[in-house]
Design goal:
The complex is a heterodimer of chains A (154) and B (189). By secondary structure, chain A is an alpha+beta fold. Chain A has three helices and five strands; from the N terminus they run αββαββαβ. In chain A, strand 1 and strand 2 form a beta hairpin. Chain A is elongated. The mean pLDDT of chain A is 87. Chain B is of the alpha+beta class and 189 residues long. Helix content of chain B is 38%, strand content 19%. Chain B has three helices and five strands. Chains A and B meet through helix 1 and strand 5 of A and helix 1 and helix 2 of B.
């Protein structure tokens, strides 16, 4: 075998490795990305469930100076406190919608004994920026719901 | 090395790639598909728990079903009624039957407390039909104190796509989940 043929074989192996490595890494990161999407879905749902559980108690909060915090702000804060490692910034209060399913007027969080559906819209950016280009909004949109009946608080 | 041997090596690489690539793609597809199935199952679990929780706390069962179906869209919604079925059942102690010492619990058939069915998937409740004793396979109801009321939500979901059938016909494509919550009053009303 001539020396030029040997060099050609080594080069071929490097090229194959390059292509193979790129494909392998793409598959690997796709699996990681998809796993994180599932994790995010479960975590978001749990966060909203926690917020809903807080909502039904009718509680409000106070800040460090003793000033009252409105109930809807507290519901929002409980949700954000449970966003753990999902890579999503805390949504604004306007991203929360409250719907009383009996058709009555519905203040944020609802009133005593009202059944309230809370809806939140968030967008989850991809872990790997390369994948974000496939989503028009820069990430995968999530719309979450939870429905609770408020307790008969005073 | 002869020229023919070199040519043979090149062909071998191509054959290996041809064999490996479908396996790799199948692996990726399998990961995505199993993930999707788990995600769907979590949605069903969340749906039945939320519905049973609402009904047990006094929300009208019809309204509760409306709410949980809206929340489960697009997994379950108006767009695919043939793919799912949700059944609400109210479980009460059989009227006029004393506990000796075990109580008998039935699916309430007194209007307006009968079973409520949504969705068009051809499935029937695993708890039982209206007026019947709760299916013994459910278990636990022989130990329940007298006079309790329960709210049960069952969901059936026909999970596609057909790749599951391809993997194995023993895999049940119809997902089933239920939640049974005690009425907060603790007594029949």
């Amino acid at each position: 075998m001539s020396s030029s043929l040997l060099r050609g074989g080594k080069g071929q192996a490097v090229v194959e490795l390059t292509f193979g490595f790129l494909i392998f890494m793409s598959v690997f990161f796709a699996i990681v990305e998809f796993s994180h999407l599932l994790y995010t879905k479960v975590t978001l749902q749990n966060a909203l469930r926690s917020a809903g559980r807080y909502m039904v108690t009718g509680q409000t909060g106070v800040d460090g100076s003793g000033n009252p915090i409105p109930r809807d702000q507290m519901i929002h804060d409980v949700f954000c406190a449970n966003l753990i490692a999902v890579g999503i910034p805390c949504p604004s209060g306007s991203d929360f919608q409250y719907t009383c399913i009996d058709g009555t007027s519905c203040p944020p969080g609802g009133g005593p004994n009202q059944t309230v559906m809370v809806t939140v819209n968030v967008v989850k950016p991809a872990l790997v920026p390369f994948f974000s280009q496939f989503f028009p909004s820069g990430g995968l949109p999530f719309q979450l719901h939870t429905t609770w009946r408020n307790e008969p608080y005073a | 090395m002869s020229r023919s041997a070199v040519s043979s090596d090149k062909g071998q690489t191509l054959v290996e790639l041809t064999l490996i690539l479908p396996l790799m793609l199948l692996l990726v597809y399998g990961v995505v598909e199993v993930g999707s199935a788990i995600s769907t199952y979590l949605t069903l679990t969340h749906t039945v728990r939320e519905g049973a929780n609402l009904a047990s706390r006094g929300t009208d069962p019809d309204d509760a079903l409306d709410a949980i179906i809206a929340a489960a869209d697009p997994t379950m919604g108006a767009g695919n009624p043939g793919q799912w079925r949700i059944i609400y059942s109210r479980i009460v102690q059989e009227p006029g039957t004393p506990c000796t010492p075990e109580c008998t619990y039935i699916i309430d058939n007194i209007e307006p407390n009968g079973q409520i069915v949504r969705g068009a998937l051809a499935q029937s409740s695993k708890l039982g039909t209206e007026g019947s004793v709760v299916n013994a396979a459910v278990g636990g109801f022989n130990n329940v104190a007298p006079g309790q009321t329960f709210h049960a939500i069952e969901v059936f979901y026909d999970y596609g796509p057909d790749v599951i059938t391809f993997v194995g016909s023993g895999f049940d494509k119809i997902f089933y989940e239920r939640a049974i919550f005690t009425d907060v009053s603790g007594t029949a009303n």
